[in-house]
Design a protein that fits this description.
Radius of gyration of chain B: 34 Å
CATH superfamily of the largest domain in chain B: Immunoglobulins
CATH architecture of the largest domain in chain B: Sandwich
Structural class of chain A: alpha+beta
Mean pLDDT of chain B: 88
Helix content of chain B: 25-40%
Number of strands of chain B: 7
Oligomer: heterodimer
Shape of chain A: elongated
Helix content of chain A: 10-25%
Number of domains of chain A: 3
Strand content of chain B: 35-45%
Low-confidence stretches of chain A: none
Shape of chain B: rod-shaped
CATH topology of the largest domain in chain A: Immunoglobulin-like
Largest sheet of chain B: 4 strands, antiparallel
Structural class of chain B: alpha+beta
CATH class of the largest domain in chain B: Mainly Beta
Mean pLDDT of chain A: 87
Distance between the termini of chain A: 101 Å
Order of helices and strands of chain B: HEEEEEEE
Largest sheet of chain A: 5 strands, antiparallel
Number of domains of chain B: 2
Number of strands of chain A: 18
Number of helices of chain A: 2
Chain lengths: 250, 159
């Protein structure tokens, strides 16, 4: 009877050891590996989001001098994308200027002034770098410093029309006394699903009127709050002025 | 007869003790081996996973390129906008077109990275073109190749 009780003790011990190995080695190993996999997956997901946000960044940068002879430049940055951006650097030619400015979607900020070395006949090219690793060249034409004066080859008005899907628009720019207008009004085809963006170059600084019409039925109708008055003063402000018209409610 | 019966009982007890001791010894050894093996396997797996994670989280661009006035040096700024530090080599392949002979000359230069580019920094890398200086119109294909085998490309036209 005594030795019958002791008969299976080694089997029980072996089973206990097996269970011990299972709980102290195999299961912890599995759990730690699973946790590592989770961290990996989280990071992959984070990087995918980060890459998507990077791809969605869109900004417009306009560079302009403070005065016609100043050695200081301002850069006006407009965030035209859907995600907020953080500007970390501005390059003017081969010199970088560190900044740290966040701009909300559709917002803008004036960076600078940045002091540059003036050289006659030299072009000044600006690029803007964001924290997510995008680099955007200046949208406005290259600035030149010629005969001790700043010169930009063109001034312009950048018109953004908030669009209702597949609507047709006509954009025309006039000067104040209507002696000058766009050679041909810009007319959309009615196939755009996103907002309309159009830049009209103007000959000189001064006051302009931006007329934006939408086709409703068979006739062209002015959008609300249009025509828009625009004043272009250069240097001192951006050579390209942004205006927005809302075409969604008409 | 009685004596033999007593001795037979003792041998069974001893046999049980020996068997239990063997089970404990062998089991302990297996347990110990299993602990070491699983620990090593776990560490390997974690290291492998985290290494791969660093590979996929590396992010960098060629932010800016310029040259010195006589074209003997090319400057490349590499911006590490990721979360991990990187070590990179920068290759520059210059193509020069000679309009007189209608021929192309190719020059390949390399600057090996020695110090890590810390996350968020944008150090300048200098590539030496002493032997074959860059000229206006040259096209430079720049390739930044990290030790984790990620690549960023950039094309620069010499002004």
């Amino acid at each position: 009877m005594y030795h019958e009780r002791r008969k299976g003790i080694s089997t029980i011990m072996g089973t206990l050891i097996f269970v011990g190995i299972l709980f102290t080695s195999v299961i912890p190993m599995y759990l730690v590996m699973k946790q590592a996999d989770n961290i990996y997956t989280q990071n992959v997901h984070k990087m995918e989001i980060s890459d998507q946000e990077r791809a969605r960044e869109a900004i417009e940068a306009h560079t302009y001098p403070l005065t016609s002879t100043s050695n200081q430049l301002n850069v006006k940055v407009t965030n035209t994308g859907v995600v907020p951006v953080k500007i970390v650097r501005v390059w003017i030619n081969d010199v970088s200027y560190s900044v740290s400015t966040s701009i909300a979607s559709q917002g803008n900020a004036v960076l600078g002034p940045f002091t540059v070395t003036l050289q006659n006949g030299k072009a000044y090219v600006t690029t803007v770098t964001t924290e997510r690793g995008n680099s955007f060249a200046s949208t406005s034409p290259t600035l030149f410093y010629i005969n001790n004066y700043w010169f930009t080859p063109s001034l312009g008005i950048h018109v953004i029309v908030l669009n209702q899907a597949a609507a047709k628009y006509k954009i025309c720019v006039y000067n104040e006394d209507k002696t000058w207008n766009s050679t041909k009004p810009y007319e959309t085809q009615g196939t755009d699903n996103q907002d309309i963006a159009w830049t009209e170059l103007v000959p000189t600084q001064g006051n302009y009127e931006v007329e934006v019409k939408k086709k409703v039925g068979g006739s062209w109708v002015d959008l609300p709050n249009t025509p828009i008055d625009v004043e272009i003063v250069w240097p001192g402000v951006s050579p390209v002025i942004n205006v927005v018209a809302d075409g969604r409610g008409t | 007869m009685r004596r033999l019966k007593v001795r037979r009982g003792i041998s069974e007890v001893i046999a049980s003790i020996i068997l239990t001791a063997v089970v404990l010894t062998v089991g302990g050894a297996i347990w110990s081996f299993a602990q070491s093996a699983t620990l090593a396997a776990t560490n390997d797996y974690i290291n492998g996973t985290f290494t791969t994670m660093k590979d996929i989280t590396e992010r960098f661009i060629v932010e800016h390129v310029s040259k010195n006035t006589d074209g003997t040096q090319l400057y490349v700024w590499v911006y590490n906008y990721g979360t991990v530090d990187i070590v990179s080599d920068v290759y520059a392949n210059a193509t020069h077109y000679n309009p007189t002979t209608h021929s192309y000359t190719y020059t390949c230069k390399l600057t090996m990275g020695t110090t890590p580019i810390v996350s968020g920094s944008y150090p300048q890398v200098t590539i030496d073109f002493q032997s074959n200086s860059l000229q206006s119109g040259d096209k430079i294909g720049i390739k930044v190749y990290t030790r984790r085998q990620n690549i960023a490309y950039y094309t620069y036209y010499v002004p």
